[in-house]
Amino acid sequence: MLRRIRKQFFIRSAPSWLVLAIDLYWVVNNFLFAHLIRFNFRFSLDGSVLKIQLPVVIAITVFSFLITGSYKGIIRHTGSRDAIKVIMASFLIMVFLMATVFLVNYLNLGEILDFPLSIIVIHFLLNTIVLIGLRFLFKIFYNILFSSYKVGPKVMIYGAGEAGLLTYSIFNNDKANNSQICGFIDDDPRKHNKRINGVRVYNPKDVTQEFITAKRITRIIIAMQFIKQSRLIEIVAQLTKLSVKVKIVPPTRTWINGPNLKVGQIKSIKIEDLLGRSVIEMDNPELQKEFDDKVVLITGAAGSIGSEICRQLANFNYKHLILVDQAESDLYNLQQYFNYKKYQNITCIVADVRNEKRMDSIFEKFKPEMVFHAAAYKHVPFMEGNPYEAVLVNVFGTKTIADLVIKHQAKKFVMVSTDKAVNPANVMGATKRIAEMYITSLQGKGTSKFITTRFGNVLGSSGSVIPLFKTQIKNGGPITLTHKDITRYFMTIPEACQLVLEAGIMGDGGEIYVFDMGTPIKIYDLALNMIQLSNLKYPEDIDIEITGLRPGEKIYEELLGDGENCIPTHHSKIMIAKVKTMDVNEIQQKINELCVFNRELNFEQTVSKMKEIVPEFLSNNSVYEKFDHIEQIKIKTEQ
Predict the structure, then answer these.
(1) What are residue 35's phi and psi, to 5 degrees?
(2) What is the CB neighbour count within 10 angstroms for residue 180?
(3) Per-residue pLDDT tens digits for 86-109
(4) 353, 300: one domain
(5) What is the SS3 assignment for 320?
(6) Angstrom distance (rounded) from CA 23 to CA 15
(7) Residues annotated as catalytic (active site), given as ranges
(8) What is the pTM of this model?
(9) Among 117, 259, 589, 591, which residue has the least CB neighbours within 10 Å?
(10) How far apart are CA 594 and CA 175, in angstroms?
């Protein structure tokens, strides 16, 4: 019965004319009540006077409501803006009534409309209080009527700021959700033991397991938009020790320009939330100008970095995008994505950067003005065992594309490098460093500008440690870790690609741009956090097994090499690595010699030549350590 009444009378919003009629009824009653208050509850008006005054009040009221539109709001969603509209309407009624009295007196039209101004002021106050009060009373009644009778989960919100209050409001307004907000948690000592909307704010130190058990709390939602990464990790580490589910409110950028935040968007916290960095807002008009009506070629377009560069470039007013990759399936998936999004003038080409003739034909046909070179082999252990492929793709492939840029007079060449090229300890890093050296040396040879970007690991890329740990946890463990003290820098793929584009337009040529990677993350702590976020315990549920460093693997990564300094740019996240200048003929000769050794499939000669080209290349935990030169061994011993 109650359910039928609710559906029949409350599901649909009341029509605007009905709200207007009800408001008008109360305004007329308030006018009469204002007389009673003014004359000490002795009614002094006769019927003939009311016949004239009431129509005037009604006309003025309707006119004021039409101007302000105060009757158009949905009553059950009444908020501060609706209250302001009611105040404005009441104020207009007061002003118009006062103007009417003054006009009647000025024209000497009689005393029928000449009533005390105090009545008009009292009428204004009554209208404001009654009309706003009735709206909020209806809202409260509606909430009670539609609230579930079942006792829902008890929830606490970590953060008593704007994000926390917004989260509280969302839970209160979502009738399909019957969660009970039992308290706020906040780091600010000034808020402790205070109440917000009747809900108490607690000190984080008070939220213990005994507290959680006593209050029967099942979930804690982190609602803080501006928080340091280190503090967020501390909070999660504290909460995951309690018998509660930890959730987090998504970043503002994901919903501020789209649908309003909803309860369903508040998800269980993931390790990516802890490693995600502050978003870089690309508000640079030069970006639009740089790619306007340009033909852009991206190699390695189907990879993690390359595909994101493609997606971001697709939002500019380009002339033509040429996407090149030798990975057929991944490139096909990227093509289907752009077809689904209905992007125009995007051509996907299956081709290999190692094939000089094939790549030359692509340059000849499309005449690219800008080239983003993201094609590379990047897996350290694989390349340590396959130096032939590492040299062929990372060195010869890069040289091939760069030479074609000069031949076809492309405007810019931007190479995606890696922090593993800094003081390389493995074949992969050494090949990327040789590629950097070659690209840097080409500046000034021809009209093209050659730019290199260097950054660390990206979250979600193929081969990343996080997907591996997730799989191992899902399979019951153990998590395999090569060294307990190993650290890595992390950056999100969109952020890395945004910085690549930004550096691409900043460069005058010859620079190696280094990105601010933030604070390095200890992988052991990362593994512990992932176990805790999976509601498991270490080592009872999931153990961590130390397997030892793999061939070529470093304990920590660097962003600057020996003898390199950083020069700041106008962008706080981008710096320029000041490196030694190199003679293009010398480096080209050495690379040609390296490619000759490589074609002979003599891995040892190949690696030995690489160490000659890159003196700082010191193999770590590798069979190639024996080829370290005497000077290198001395440096390694001193380190």
Answers:
(1) -65, -45
(2) 14
(3) 888 888 888 888 888 888 777 776
(4) yes
(5) strand
(6) 13
(7) 420
(8) 0.68
(9) 259
(10) 69
